[in-house]
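User: Second chain of the day. Same drill as before.
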Amino acid sequence: MEKDNLIIHVILTGGVGSRLWPLSRKSQPKQYLEIFENKSLFEMTVNRNSHLANRVMVVGNIDNHHLSGKVMGKTNTDYLNIVEATPRNTAPAIAFAAFAANPDDILIVTPSDHIIDHMDNYNKAINEAISKAQDGFIVTFGIIPTKPETGYGYIESKGDKVVSFREKPNETTAKEFIAKGNFLWNSGMFCFKAGVLLDELKQFQPDIYEKSKKVWELAKDGFLDLDLSMEIPSISIDYAVMERSKKIKVVPASFSWSDLGSFESVYDYLVSKGHPVDKNGNMVIGSAKHTTFLGLKNTIFVYTDTANLILQKENSQDVKDIYSELEKINSDLLN
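Assistant: Same format as last time:
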């Protein structure tokens, strides 16, 4: 008997959020921090899509799958758990989910650490993407930009056609993109039939296809083998498929979106939710203690039990450099 084709929400939970150190640590990456109205980004992702899909898969890693499990328990969500033994980037992660589905099942793939508002627009975009996926296209979501952001990749588009994918630009290039009016932020969200994605992966990256298939077939209760996983090349889905396939469509989406990839974007979000700032735009995150800023503007003070960070909001992208320096010395402050 043929099974009904499912709409499956695939949640990718990789990444440690190095730009949000010291809040985000290896033991508690940013998507699990309950600092967004007492919910985590992961929990918000689960809730946002619960009515759109009839099955959920979580692709996590050996270090964080227990944290995902807590959220899925809290939200009372049944799910298929796919646990990577080692990070191999998004192409293999998405391939595992596609192998776990039936070829005609439609997968909605989302990261676990995004903030999305204007849910009517979001639901409309998802439904439009599902419709295109049913016609055999691989759909990416392009966010209509609100400013020349240097922290995001861009999609050059013409209607629902993708002209090109662009890497994160410098400020001058980002301004040029915005002025042209046909550039969208690359959201890292996708929608497609499992079989269509796998066929394209097999065509463009047969090595990743074969090695990921082998790893999936030998998985034990969703846990993937380390030695076999190490043989899979580490490549993003953008590079492996999206930039090469002729089956790509983009849905230009007008919902409010942020990957909260920096303290500047966290600051903007918290301000929109009524988090206190002083008259010079200074903010405290992580502490209720009275804090006074003297002679400072747009400064963010981030408090944790073991490390504090004080930064100018405009320097948010540089936090990753601090993380890298601590990584070089194998610092406990990253754990």
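The chain has a mean pLDDT of 92.

User: Great, on to the next one.
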